[in-house]
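Final report, closing paragraph on structural work. Over the funding period we assembled a curated collection of sequence-structure pairs, and we close with a single example.
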Amino acid sequence: MTHVVVVGAGMAGLRSAEALRKNGFSDHLTLVGEEIHLPYNRPPLSKEVLADEVDHSKVAFPLRAALGEVEWVLGTRATGLDLDTRSVTLHDGTTMAFDGLVIATGLRPRRLPIDDPVPSRESGRHILRTLDDAAALRDELVPGAHVVVLGAGFIGCEVAATSNKLGCDVTCVAIDEFPMVRPLGPVIGSEMRRRHEAHGVEFRLGTGVTGFAANGRVHGVELSTGEVLAADVVVEAISSHCNTEWLADSGLDVADGVLADTWLRACRPGGAAVDGVHVVGDLARFVNPIFDHVPRRVEHWNIPTETGKRAGASLAAYLRGDGYESVDTPFAPMPAFWSDQYDLRIQSYGMLGLADSDGVRLLEGDISDEFVMGYFRDDVLVGVVGLGMLPQTNAYRSRIGAALEATG
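Its predicted structure, as stored:
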């Protein structure tokens, strides 16, 4: 019997499994997950789930009947991949042979390289990636608590907004000059700072963290400016690491995530694809012809679904002997994400980071109210962000990269 192993039991892994079944794969299917939970939706963790009682049932993905019989191996992680023997090694030393493999191990939050106190929930140093992380953090977000959020990206700002709404005293610390400046740029970043401050959130921007004041548990954050911020709770939201350590000796290109071809086959350095081995989600570094021919990882909410569908269809075709070329539609997903902060909805499509430094233009609305902002590279629209104005923002989606597609 043919055996497919999916390593990673999050959204990308689940969508890959669903696509395998949809495309005719009916044999043995195993999903391996480091968490004890069945697949669930992560974006609400910093918003709705953190603001309310945390419960797996509120964020769990439905397991549809079409998924069929699946072997779930949860609470375990992969530690190695051998492409010669076509096997995955688990942390208890057991091996799992496969005919097809999907790599879906995603990302994990980066910690500050400071050892005192030990980075843990018990010491008051939190991260937010899993349901258990959210539950532990939620218990500490009581009215009047001094919450210091390290990092002013989307996760950091969402946690700041949620903590503020729960009655906490919130300060955001980041080395950047504006919140969310890397994805959104300084214009929107400056406006979002103004809106956060109007709700009472304070910022310490352009500064780093040199240490913590602690006695087993953190009670202060020491900044590079010399200031010490009172802290009952610290949330480290500074960036992420790719979970590719288990692939270090596999022979795959893991320089930044895992290099993949248009069928999302994992590739070796130099670009040679490995049949039957696929990569999905935040780890997949692939070319998107909507924009150009440079392979990139894309950490947007729809990419796990899009890559899962593509990998599942491609792997199913390979296993039934039809060949990859039978999946002949181009893989060109439109990256999309949203962020809810207070009563604000930020919606984006495209690749904002590809825009020229002077390529950010107001398309509609008023920057101090609701608006749509366009991001251009060589006068070609490569991304759009709307704050409010959702119908207008959605209308620009089909225009992104249109000139590039027309010229090939």
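The longest helix spans residues 303-319. The chain has a mean pLDDT of 95. We thank the funder for supporting this effort.
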